[in-house]
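Appendix B. One record, verbatim.
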Amino acid sequence: MIWQSTNHFQRNRENRPNMNRKPDLTQAQLFLDDAWIEEAAFVSRQWHQPRKFPDPVLKPEHPWERWCPSLYGTVLHWRGKFRMWYTCWTRDGNQPRTAYAEGADGVAWEKPRLGVCEFGGNKDNNIILDAVAPRYIDDLTVIDDAGDSEWPLKALYWEGATHDWKKQDWGIYLARSKDGIHWDRSPGLVLPQWIDRFNAVSTKLNGQYVVYGRSADLQRGMGRNGRSVWRTESADLIHWSKAKLVLQRDPEDPVNMEYYSASVFPYEGLALGGLERMHMSPDRLDTELIWSHDGGWKWERAPKRPAFLSPSSDRRWDDTWVCLPTNAPIRRHHRLWFYYSGRSGAHGSEYPSNHGAIGLAFLRMDGFASLMAGERKGVVVTKPMRWPKAALHINVDPRRDLASHPGFCTGELRAELRTAANQPIKGFTWDDCVPFTRNTAAAENAACPAIWKKGKCARDLAGKSIRIAFKLHDAHLYSFRSKP
């Protein structure tokens, strides 16, 4: 069952978001937690990792990126092209800068010679932001600011020389651009003395620009629990709210693990995040999926804290350090595309042992977690919801083993619509439902409509308060949504 003990059941009930608010049912309703679940029997929540493309999609090639290109940056599909802004280091690792790449299909990337910044006595390179040594630029988020026709792209980046706390000229700077290549850096320093591992959200979150990072408060003794994640927000990118601590390690975490950073993105009505976890011994970094129902203030985590993105287990370019960029996954070919940064070394590794590149991994739409039932039939009953004038679409995979052939579907799922009092509605029972016996992954939004006998559709119950009861075996239920 989902709840593994009475105490766990009670804790989940207390932490559930208030579903009395009106949810947007046109967006996918995920099963990351028990927010929608009123009853459940003989199902278990399964957590899924994206499948990695076997080779890096962007490798170190030039002297200015010889140490390793890193996705302390952003990937967007913008104005008809895939565009990547990434951090790179020279061989000595002491002078990071920002470079640019672009591509038509997101797998093959080009590094155009842009003539913007000088390196090695000429501008024949793809560097777009640099600083005069001993200062350097590290960490960058490109923000797709569609509401600003004059400057549609903004960038927040870290610049400084050393962490000399007596100086005031280091921290997070602001730049703006019309094309993503040429940047006006005149806005300057906007978040003084923020430490150099930060991520901004690459689009507005609830109408605000948002930064997650390490505030200077960490240096003033407020980070006694190790590296942690702070949040600040702004309406104009110039004036920022007082930083608030939103994530720090707790007793469920290993003693020698800290939170290196968090990259956050909006997804189907939620804020999702990749929590970059630094394991101190051995020195290794992976990424955990976190989520928020309130726009990224209060964060939820899976009870057993599984990794969403793990270093490769064999001796490869990404076997020690993996993390996500600042952007949301890109929806492409019925899947979510996650670009990620990988390295074969961590802190203190000298060239060439700290080799790295940028990779790509794929996940089913809404495929972060599923409710799974095996041979024994499982049941999930939702809380009541006011149903719109729309069909019910369900994202389901009726396979027991997700590694089997995509068409080897041995299970099924049926949906029953019930009254708010949990009574089956005539004509919408499990027996009336046309069973889901095919994987819906290739459908739009990876979801297909539920149909009942005599052509009945959930649209017929528009305006009524209903529950959805799912019955499944040998199947994975990922999400549901309405579709007019």
